[in-house]
Amino acid sequence: MSQTDFIYLMPLLILTFAVLVSMLVIAAWRNHKIIYVITALSFIAAFGSLYELRTTTAYIIEPMFVIDGFGVFYIGLILLTSLLVSMLSYAYFEQREERKEEYYLLLVLATLGACVLVISTHFASLFLGLEILSISLYALIPYLRTRPRSDEAGIKYLILAAFSSAFMLFGMALVYFSTGTMVFSGLAASIAGMQELPLLLLTGIGMMLIGVGFKLGVVPFHMWTPDVYEGAPAPVTAFIATVSKGGVLGLLIRFFMEVDGFRYPVLVTILTIVAIASMFAGNLLALMQKNVKRILAYSSISHLGYILVAFMAGNQMGVEAVTFYLVAYFITSVGAFGVVAMLSDKNSDAELLEDYKGLLWRRPWTAAVFSAMLLSLAGIPLTAGFVGKFYIIAAGINDQLWLLVVMLVLNSVIGLYYYIKIIAVMFQQPETEREPAIRLRPSVYVASAGTLAVLALLLVYVGVYPTGLVQLIQNVLVSVPEIVSK
Amino acid sequence: MILVWLIVILMAGGLLAWLSKKLNPELPRWVALAAVLLDLILIVYVWITLKAPADSAWLLRYEVPWIPQWGVSFSLALDGLSLLMLVLTFFLGLLAVLISWKEIKNKTGFFHFNLLWVLAGITGVFLTMDLFLFYFFWEVMLIPMYFLIGVWGHENRTYAAYKFFLFTQASGLLMLLAILGLYFIYGSETGTYTFNYFDLLNTPLAPAAARLLMFGFLAAFLVKLPVVPFHSWLPDAHSQAPTAGSLILAGLLLKTGAYGLLRFVLPLFPTATVEFAPWAMLLGVIGIIYGAVVAYSQTDLKRLVAYTSVSHMGFVILGVFAFNEWALQGVVMQMIAHGLSTGALFILAGFLYERIHTRDITQMGGFWAKAPKMGVIALVFVMASLGLPGLGNFIAEFLTLVGSWQANNWLTVFATIGIVMATAYSLRIMQKVFYEPGPQHESFRDLNFREMLIAVPMVLGLLWLGLYPQPILNTAKPSINEQLQAYTAPEPTIAEPKTAFHRQPDATIDINQLAINQRAFSNLQIFQSSN
């Protein structure tokens, strides 16, 4: 490993170092605040180290990683999101009895896994990243052990994720068997001349897609999503919804762009069916829920379906649209689960629709932020979600994916119904007058409230003035020849 | 720049109104009043001082890039049509603030925030010349309106608010698809990707594509208008909304549909609309008659007025698809006159509800004796609604029918029957509420000063429209001609295609006749003599 390699891997190294430091500090002196500060600082430092890599042309660390604009952008996105999640976690865990410190350690580890995913170009690094992410999540999901549904969620995720990893490994083995390589570019080279994929290779790629599908929570691999979302602590849910899915999506984009998977009608058909099924299943099932976390879980299934629509466009505009939508979706999801976390009390999360009744009159600012997040999920103007959805539809129409685009529009309308339902509940007349907000220590409260305020401002900023973000995404993609050439 | 201010004042006023609630619960009303009044003064000032340049219909333009990567610009422009719509918007907006003065007692800050933001969205829709921005404002109107109905509405408000939102949102998304389709077709043909209205006007379209895209736009506008099979959201939304909400819905939101037809559908798809015209006119006539029949059988006063809207909006679509200046002048007049007269009837319903807390007309009766001022004013509104000469609606309906006669005789005959039916339902309002003896209500007071302040300007407005409509016609004329350019201007198109106006075999004669009519129309200042 040369010295430049060190510089290019700095974000990952900082995170690894932070994990070790936290572990030692916990061993020496257990203190919530110190660990929290270390975590936050390590995220900021790792993000800061990206500054060195900002103008990067693709830098390849043979054979595992490639650090290019795309990777740097996704790492940055993941780090910032993790930072926001950890900000929201502080107030949430401060009220609770359990030991809090290990939570941050696992959070940083999981983030590390996601970062590895988005820059890997080799099956080995891919799998390592995926497992670091998954294993941390096994522990994060049932972190609040004493709560009724957390074991169920933990076990469910453990079994299904292990299962999907097995599929993934088997798929990789089959691909290796038929092509003799584990590097993405090698795989691309060996199938470049083929008009159709041989059955064994197709099976291999198909099994890998199953593994990815589980992580993304798309239909028909979505079964774990609602239970895990419901059982996990709210900040962890935010993390699963954003960082975990975003990392895997980054990987999927890189893999498909490199091998040019859109050439093969079989794969396209499979992905089309998955996208349409995810949109419909997510939205229709969400209609019947009474639990806000479950509604958001099903809505995330449908949003992954929307993202797949842009992904199917398979060209630069499609990748831009996916990336833009992902940013919007990250802001929105972290914001929405942040509100859930903020309203939660010592014993349970604020997850039932009743908990939100009359919220606007009890805690107007929180309710306004939550409404903004929901409207963004619904794709209403002035929010980032609107521009994101617009981008996706534009990418779809540009590639003439009429079926997918029409399905997306249809689903937007269905989706609207349950987002509006939550908002309508918040607007109902309250039974009590404005409650005195339960203030924790002001410093704790400020961390959460400040984070939510930042998210809300970002949401509106991106919604009203998306040029900056669009420009940024277009610039970072320039350094990725696989994407630009399409 | 003044165009940007019109929108900014409303948006800033809305935020200010919300925040000022903290100081004093009455303050938001004054803030809202000031914001709308300021806009009204600005627009009237523009109307009086600005004269259109001879060669163009556009009075004011403003454009800055917004998302240059996609060819989106923040592009606003004002012509006669938008000017008239804006005057109506701010006038009704002012009344909406006044009418809520006593009716809305809780959450005044948030109420006025929503009110001003609906108005801001509507203003944007009437001004913008960028299709992305148009869709943006189109959606901005919805959310605050949803809240106005859902929070301050009557007993069944949640259902009505949902229905309103889903109908308009679904149809709006279809329009978004059409906008994007147009954007990509223009982009791939010319190499420049832009949402600019003036550029997209020149999009070369294959007939099949034009037809599909037109239906995308029509979906949004016909639902908003509403045209009969898509009208079912309207009675619920109107009857459940608070008075200010009904006023804005009937007076302004419906007009955005009509405006969209005039501004976008006609000039963008000249061939496809001609094919669709007979069907559209048929839908219009069905709407006129259906709305009138159903209105007659309502007992809920606000529902009744809502169905009269369906009927009146039938004239709009009838006129728009007649493709001639007479009819379009009628449509513009109808938009304004209907905004005033129907808005006025909703206000009347609001007055009555404030006094006796019901909208059921079987619970009303004999108010003429108790409240003579209210009775006289109601009589004017009802007469306007049935199209009595001397009031605005008459001019509108007359012009529309004259225009549509040239396009389609039989449908015009049936549309005229609708006016007779309008007389029936309008007189029924008067009869049931004011003349027939009804249940006794204690302490039924007459209109007070504030209420007179709301009602009298509407009466004056209707009289003005009815007696001296020339300024309105003059203001609208250049922009109407602009919208019709694709249908009339070049000589060869008048001479050659039989399909352009009529499908009857004897089309040539009619077309010549029409051309003469139009020339006569533009030379003679109509109605000048009648004054």
TrEMBL record, chain A:
Single GO molecular function: quinone binding
Top EC group: translocase
Gene Ontology annotations of biological process type: ATP synthesis coupled electron transport
A GO CC term assigned to this protein in UniProt: plasma membrane
Topology versus the membrane: Multi-pass membrane protein
Record keywords: Cell membrane, Membrane, NAD, Quinone, Translocase, Transmembrane, Transmembrane helix, Transport
Listed transmembrane segments: 6-27, 34-51, 71-91, 103-120, 126-145, 157-177, 197-224, 236-256, 262-288, 295-314, 326-344, 365-394, 400-420, 444-464
Highest taxon, organism lineage: Bacteria
Subcellular location: Cell membrane; Endomembrane system; Membrane
Chief localisation class: membrane
Subunit structure: NDH-1 is composed of 14 different subunits. Subunits NuoA, H, J, K, L, M, N constitute the membrane sector of the complex.
PANTHER family assigned to the protein according to its UniProt record, in alphabetical order: NADH DEHYDROGENASE
Protein name per its UniProtKB record: NADH-quinone oxidoreductase subunit N
From TrEMBL, chain B:
A single MF term (Gene Ontology): NADH dehydrogenase (ubiquinone) activity
Cellular compartment(s): Endomembrane system; Membrane
EC number(s) from the headed UniProt entry: 1.6.5.11
Keyword Transmembrane included in the entry's annotation: yes
Domain of life, per lineage: Bacteria
Membrane topology: Multi-pass membrane protein
Gene Ontology terms: biological process: ATP synthesis coupled electron transport; electron transport coupled proton transport
Domain NADH:quinone oxidoreductase/Mrp antiporter transmembrane: 129-421
Sequence intervals crossing the membrane: 6-23, 30-50, 70-98, 110-127, 133-152, 164-185, 205-223, 244-264, 276-297, 304-323, 335-353, 374-395, 407-427, 447-467
Pfam families, alphabetized: Proton_antipo_M
Chief location bin: membrane
CC annotations in GO: endomembrane system; membrane
Keywords: Membrane, Oxidoreductase, Transmembrane, Transmembrane helix
NCBIfam families, alphabetized: NDH_I_M, PRK05846.1-1
Family in the record: Belongs to the complex I subunit 4 family.
Protein name: NADH-quinone oxidoreductase subunit M
Source organism: Pontibacter fetidus
High-level lineage: Bacteria, Pseudomonadati, Bacteroidota, Cytophagia, Cytophagales
